[in-house]
């Protein structure tokens, strides 16, 4: 895992630490939180710890914990870098439900887009999102992501255990303007 | 990966062997072929042997070598995403004098049959360069549906430009073997 700290007005993104595993586990044990994530359910704390250890060893990406202005750990976010094609895949989870609806998702997405285009100098920033996850889609559109298509039945919901459709969204460097 | 043999009317598809390396090396150094492949880094014979060894160790991937009678003419690679019950597939007919005979389609249909019936996959997807009109047509004829266009998805090392990618898929319920 590559290491760096990124900051915006309210948010700090710092490298994931092993001691974050407890919070992560609490989040992924909550159906309401994982309803729209593409990973399977994690059953035991020890499995979440293993997962954190694994991503800390992973070389080609970033895995950040999201800390708000009060120093509270509220979520995590992941970047997967594709150096050949100069593109970055992105995943985000705000796990603390009390912190939902405060615009943190938008702030994190903007901060990362800026990092991807201005610092990493990559050409494309992309993500996948559940078709039903209207709130997240709105956030991504606001930041400038465009709808590119729908991968039918390409994931299994960890809650309903049913196949679900994922929208593909992307934003290109030439489309990126930093909205301050 | 498991050693598998699949047969169709004219072709045999079997799991890749180390001794296939010379053919693969020749194809992957031919710009006309790799222009529309996602891997474009022109391996030496030694490097290709290493790649094949790695592939043989993988649990979720399988590469089939396509044979016409006893001649190696191409390949098809498969990656299985078990937790989501889908697979992605790719490939090419590397022997250019065998182009235009429908072998690509026949090979893909054989692999699809294996993935849906034997492996019980629910979805099979593929990525195709938007400029690769000929392949796109073949995939449509097989029954793949276009799901979207990911803009500037590939940096093409051969043409030195960004290329759009078309995402296509076929679902189990859409697949009927003719």
Could you name the key traits of this structure?
heterodimer; A: 180 residues; alpha+beta; Aminopeptidase; eight-stranded mixed sheet; 5 helices; 8 strands; 28% helix; globular; B: 178 residues
Could you write a compact summary of the structure shown?
By secondary structure, chain A is an alpha+beta fold.
Would you give an account of this structure?
The complex is a heterodimer of chains A (180) and B (178). By secondary structure, chain A is an alpha+beta fold. Chain A has one domain (6-179): Gcn5-related N-acetyltransferase (GNAT) (Aminopeptidase, 3-Layer(aba) Sandwich), CATH 3.40.630. Helix content of chain A is 28%, strand content 33%. Chain A has helices at 21-28, 31-34, 45-57, 104-119, 134-143, and strands spanning 6-7, 12-15, 61-67, 73-82, 87-94, 124-130, 146-156, 163-172. In chain A, strands 1-2-3-4-5-6-8-7 form an 8-stranded mixed β-sheet, covered by helices on one side. In chain A, helix 1 (21-28) packs across helix 3 (45-57). In chain A, 34% of the residues are buried. The mean pLDDT of chain A is 93. Chain B has 178 residues and is of the alpha+beta class. Helix content of chain B is 28%, strand content 37%. Chain B contains 5 helices and 8 strands. Chain B has an 8-stranded mixed β-sheet with strand order 1-2-3-4-5-6-8-7, covered by helices on one side. In chain B, strand 3 (61-68) and strand 4 form a beta hairpin. In chain B, helix 1 (21-27) packs across helix 3. The model of chain B has no long low-confidence stretch (mean pLDDT 95).
